[in-house]
Amino acid sequence: MGLLNVSKDVASQFENFVGVNLWTMLIAWVNLLILYLVLKKLLFKPLKNMIDSRQKEIDDMYSDAEADKASAAALKVEYEERLARASEESEQMLRSAQRRAQLKEEEILKEANDKAARTLERAEEQIEQEKKRAINDVKNQVSGLAVDIAAAVIGRDVSSAEHEDLINDFIENIGEK
């Protein structure tokens, strides 16, 4: 029976080891509750706070990124508007410069035409003066010849007044012929 006794002792110890004891189970549950409260206080709350702060940073980064994206879109629209205005202004400036150049060209042409007309008028006046001078020279030469011829024909000297009358009569007669 010796073997049986040993086996009962082992079985009893095994039963005590594996068996359910109410006090042991209650102590285990209290230990588990204490461990949970300690871990919650020392580990879970700081860990949750760290995770919450990290989540807040990520949310802030996303909201900042969205705000920056919206701002960039607004800046892009503003840039495109400014670019369009600058393009319109440059086209307007180009048209204005062309108009000014055309007006300047017309002004230069008008001045050149006016100058040419004045030069032509002066030339015509000079021609007219030269013509009058030539006619006066011819008159003087003719009058000198007429006086010489009259003096030779009449055989006497003619006075200045008579000379003048003779010349005028002679010129009028030449003009009629």
Question: Would you write up a description of this structure?
Answer:
- The protein is mostly helical and 177 residues long.
- It has one domain.
- It has helices spanning 2-18, 22-154, 160-176.
- α2 crosses α3 (160-176).
- The radius of gyration is 67 Å and the shape is rod-shaped.
How is the main sheet built?
Answer: none
Domain module tally: 1
Percent helix among the residues? over 70%
Residue ranges: pLDDT <50 for 5 or more in a row?
none
The radius of gyration over CA amounts to 67 Å
Count of runs of 4 or more consecutive helical residues:
3
What coarse outline follows from CA principal-axis ratios? rod-shaped
What's the N-to-C terminus distance?
A: 193 Å
| Binned strand content | under 5%
User: Secondary-structure element order, as H and E?
Assistant: HHH
The average pLDDT value, as a whole number, equals 83
* Number of E-state strands: 0
Structural category: mainly alpha
